[in-house]
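question for whoever is on the cluster today: can someone run the full assembly for these? two chains, 1669 residues total. i dont have access anymore since they changed the login thing
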Amino acid sequence: MKKSNGKSLPEIILRYMRYTIAVFFLFSICAQLLWASASIGQSLKEVRIDISMNNKTLKESLTVIEQKSGFGFIYNEAWVLPYWVTVNEKNKDAAFILQKVLRNTKLDFKEYGNKVIIVQREQASPVQVNLIVKVQGIVKEKDTGEPLPGVSIRVKNSSAGTISDSDGKFGIDVTDENSILVFSFIGFLTVEQRVGSLDFISITMEQDITSLSEVVVTALGFKESADKLGSTSSKVNGEAIERSGETSVINALGGKASGVMITKSSGDPGAAAFIQIRGQNTITGNNQPLIIVDGIPISNATSYTDEEGTSGGVVPQSRLNDINPNDIASVQILKGASAAALWGSRAANGVILISTKKGAEADKVNISFSSTLSVDKINAFHPIQDKYGQGTGGNYNPSGSTSWGDKISNRAGGADDVNTSGRYFQAQDGTLYYPILTKNSQDVYVDSNYDKVFRTGQFLDNAISISGGDAKTVYYFSVGDLRQKGILRGNSEYTRTTVRLNTERTFNNVLRLGVNTAYTNSYSDRIQRGNNTAGAMVGLLRNPADFDKSDYKGSYFASATSSPITNRQRSYRSYLGALESPIYNNALWALNEEENSTLVNRFMGRVEIGVQPTGWLDITGRTGLDTYTDQQINYYPIHDLVGAGRGQYQEQMTKETELNADLIGRAQTKFGVDFAATFILGFNLNNRKYDKIGATINDFILDEAPANFSNAVSANRVPYNYKREIRTTRLYATAGLSAYESLFLNLSAAAESASSFGELSEKTFYYPSVDVAWQFSKLGIFEDFSTLTFGKLRASYGIVGVQPLPYRSNTVFTETTFSNTPWGDNVVGGSYGNGAYSQNKELGDPEIKPETKTEYEAGIDLRFLSSRLRFSTTYYQNKVKDLLVPVTIAPSTGFASKYTNAATLENKGLELDLSYDVIAKPNLTWTVYGNFSSNRNEVLDLAGTQSLYLTGIADFLDSRAVVGQPVGVFWSGRYAATAEGGMLLDANGFPTVDAVSGTIGDPNPDFMSGFGTTLSYKKITLDVLFETTQGGDYYSGTKGIMYNFGTHAETGNEVTLAQDLKNYAGATISTGSTVRGNITDFGGGPVLLDETWYTTLGSGFGSLKEQFIEDGSWTRLRQVTLSYRLDPEWFRKKTKLQSLELSFTGRNLIVWTDIEGIDPDTNLTGTFTGRNMDYFNSPNTRSYLCTLKINY
Amino acid sequence: MITKKLIWLLAILLIVVLPACESLVDGLNVDPNNPTDASAELILTSAQLANLTIHEGHTVRVAGMWSGYFTGVDRQYKDIFNYNITGASFNQIWENIFYGVVSQAKLVIAKSEPLNNRLMKGIALIVQANALGSATAGWGDIPLSQTADITTYPNPVFDSQADVYADLQEMLSVAIEELASGIGTSPGVADIHYGGNAAKWIAAAYTLKSRFYLETRQYDLAYEATATGVGVPANSMMVPHGSTLNSDENLMYAFIARSRAGDMNSSGALITRLLNPAESLYRGNDKTDETARFNFLFLTNDPNGIIPNTTTGGIFAQTASYPLVTYEENLLTAAEAGARAVSFDEGLAKLNEYRAYMNGGGYIGPSFVDGAYAFKYEAYTADDFAPGGLINPESLSPEEALLQEILLERYLAFFGQELGFNDLRRTREESVGVKLTPNTGSVLPERFIYSEAEINSNTNAPNPVPDIFVPTLINND
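^ ran it for u. tokens below:
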């Protein structure tokens, strides 16, 4: 085999270092270009010099001081010309000398880092140098006592100013004791302090809760005031995530941010959820946002899917679930292209930045323990009829496939007549089942079958964290342990143990080091579901009312005298266990006999080194590693449906490693008091390696041997493996400019190369962005308009992309497998001749390049009434070009598809966020809040293909991209229409199906919204959150199939006819007869819907799927939390505890929807593009949680 | 000023560092999982496997439900049985025909021609003709002249069905010529049907020619071709099968017995009523006993109805070979074409040749003819076809009676093959032949629906798409 051309890790590191050095080198050139060399880290006052100048020009004097002090002087030559200077000093600090030199001029100086700018004195102020009160001090945060770096300190009514250093310390010279210092910092209340006689001032600053001048994290992980940004992001704090009661970070975001849509795949423990930010931005690429934890991108792969959709098997997990929600300090969602542009071709779906908790300087160790117990119940289930028995045509048949049999109440009652002379089944508990001759029993098992399948689920989540630190070192350590049992009985469970240690050390003014490490061990076992005849839901919902599911396993005796065939499965299609494979699994078998487990061991680490060689320059080196192994086992014993009753076992090991390194230089500077700039230059290298290896064996040699590959003959062992490596390098730069603290301009650009681009495509792609923010409320005209506290207009533009899948630039040859869909098996080349290879049906594209999304957004942020009322809105519009799609090619060309940049789509949307502090008193606060978002998506071009299959059940009901429609519309058989557009009915008044499939529904919502309220009285807090999504279509596939099987409650109805009616078969049913069925009118007069309808065109299996498209809108009481915090003085003294918190949460308590039988927040196709499809999905849950949190 | 310097700096950085960035990611896009080429032999096997899916899979199940062979009883098959079907369900088969067979076969030819491997070329042409013949019979007009050449023909035209048949005859003639040259290297076991035996391929090509001539009603040419067609049962072109799950099983077995058990059986199907001695329509007579064949084809004692026999030894057993071009087809084509184009006597002689073959067990599984079940196929005489004769109670002309009997034999022999559907449609308007009543409504299907994948992507595809009740060109007289 040809070795991959990839470079080994040491090579990468070496090369990476080489370029790192180049970047450093260039940085230093940059520094020298900008500012002449200076005594690093010193101020003018700290440099002592001797000087002797007699009647020299000012220019000469300045040159001497410049040389002796090492500072660079910048001045306008015209200003210094008129002056002559005499000065003689020894061992005086340079500032003092400079002041003396300039004493009799109209000039003054300002010190910026290592440069000195000579400026003109304001006005023609009297030459009165009232030198000099030197003030030193420290700024701390009031709540935590932590020093606050970066606080702006200005002398009121003067141009002098400085910034606190990384220890919160500052030094400033003022002219007199009456000078007033103004301390300001984003997110904090501004403090004014008269200097007075103090020479050391200690200032505490309080967070400004009302201003909501939120501190956000930029794409690169730097903190920034949201008020200075021209792009939007949504922030959800860790407390809100904890309070949601969800075990997964993704689900915890539901309803909390505008423009962010979270769709669950099911209520199974650990199930993945689908995140969509501002609509669909890709058609076939990875549609999930990039997840960055503490500056490091991590894998959010959904296992079992490998970036592909899944509809069968078990619900996928999401690797994002590996993060303990208790460790999260905040989650921030970068929605727009400009905010995310620095992540280039991985950012088109938005970026989610997760910050984990850090310790804080404290005089004690903070220990926090929390324990949550959750009780989960099914929140909706399909109604099942219990009036009619198994069989067809009104006749009982004990092995019939449907429940269109006899009326149960018409049976004789008592025990069935059975034939005890021949074959029989002996259950595990000894119960004997014989062939039924006459069905007499009127017993129905709808409820008992349900109870045998479902239980009350629960989880227990314990977490302990230890945190603290001193002035130089902070640490946060936590252990979390989650144990969950699903609502399905049997093998449905999820356990997760996490350990995290975050530490940060500041060595001195120059060097700091941060190390984060996290380890996760998770295990889950899930039940087969979906369009999978092996699943529990299929087995339960197709089961006739008169078949008792218990005794699902036992021995089959083919005759009275024959020896038993052991471990046979008994199900309603095989009630004596006579079949080797039972057609559908008994739900109890699926629950208890199968194993579908995954065991994940994951390590995430981050090392960040910060170097601050001078006050204005900050260099950050950040390296992250995210690596996991996932061991998946699928075990189907003999007589399971999977493996045709002969047994099947699959084991697979997946390993994924993502290595990421950034080197970032950041320079900050001020030009006068009114202008400031921040420049960032960085380099990123990212390498993702994926390996999968596994094998499947079929047809066990020994029925009950341990799960091992040796338990099959060699022809029935199929090993497989798959490898993938993607590497991306990126060089990026940003410039943030501000003027008058009210106008902000941010520019950024990333240049990216990636290994998955085509051989003939460009090597480097550029992702520019620009945003501008204008705080217009700072205009003078608003000073009198006191209602408006803050107002900002913002606009942004940016380009982001989606990387092509790797290895798609060539047309390869693949081992031959011919599928025989619909509903057929495969033919595999490996079983014939010398094996077989065929040219891939997908044509490669050597010119493949990333998809690019260009987005414009504009918005306004307003705060009124001292920031008690906060409002923000954003309109955005984006166009995604060069979408990578496997363009369907007419098969007659010899290929089925070409993966290429072909399609175009666009999104337009509006987002609103509003909150209002109705009451804001110390002991009583009441806030109401809400968000609203609406997105319109349209596929503009599909390169000639009319419709493109995305996911779902192919050629049955699937999700597609169709030109002129939103991505993901439902595609299947639709009503045939008359020329006038009405329904084309057959002679009997029933609808007919169009021979050509088409769009039958759009699952994308018209709008969605989250709204709620928080009420706090003293130590009691009540949180209520509602969420709604309106206008998306929903495919009720389960219901349609239940019609076919005659198990749905509606198919158990009886009607008495008031007139002669036709049924679908054309028979006339006469007036007065009472029959099983329903009457409806399709437009041609009333007709009778009976077995002839429900099992053919009216069946979910039938070709007319359009009849099962419904309005999937829902509104739910997403969450209610009542919490109480106990922390009075007496309690603290008595217990030595800081506080104790108790909270009760109800999650998903009420759902208002027209969808019957299942909570519509579920999806067959997992995290893939399709949504709102129900096809035997596992039900969702409603939960009641109780949390106790103890802080020491 | 500073901004200017920064821009300079950035420019320098881009010049210096970008090539470095690019070189870091070079060479990583070579697929480590799949090769970029394969040998002609391995690709030939692929083409043959694709060809088998066309003749054992979805198309023959659908054709069978519309030919009185199968009954759709559950899930999707109930709806298809009632003539509700969309083009989407033919996407895979259509892809297997053109991508799977035609495109791969053309690759084999392109790789063989420079090596002058005329044997390989001949085989590839016949496999192609087999698939395309079934395609044109099922769909009518199909792309042929412009297929599998995407750069020149991104939208291949649909050639008229008549032209397709003519082209296929030509394709087979070329194949026969190539094979007869004696030049080439045998693909050995990579040829899953004949192991590279040129003589067997030539015979199969002639039988295919006779099949196509019959379908275009060129009976004289059909008769002529059968003379050099498959001449012994052992030379029938069969698909070998094994017992590896979802890999090499008999596809009819996989569907009926395993993956979609219960969806489709043969309860009430015309063929069971003709073969079941207990039925009024039973075709047996003094010289004919169908008990063995009935039990070979069907499981007759299952509580869920009459089910095609997927048990060991049955027609659709897991490892049972599947017929593509057979000795019995060649004989029965000779019989029909002989009766129509040569003489009554010639037709009868060929029919009796077939009956003699069946009387020796024929294609019926050995375990059904080893004494367990009765069977009898004695030779007919001309008297049997005379008005009022053994098999002419309705007093047809002897010619008509003979043709009726031959067409019935063909119908019974082609259970599970598309040939039955083709015969029914070809002879629907004639006075004799097997007459079917619709499963629902009053009309019978005349074709498959074009694949939606093709319709959606080929600007030259027919528009509007003909529905299943529109006869194809050759049957539209």
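summary bc i know u wont read the tokens: Residues 9-34 of chain A form the longest helix (26 residues). Chain A has a mean pLDDT of 85.
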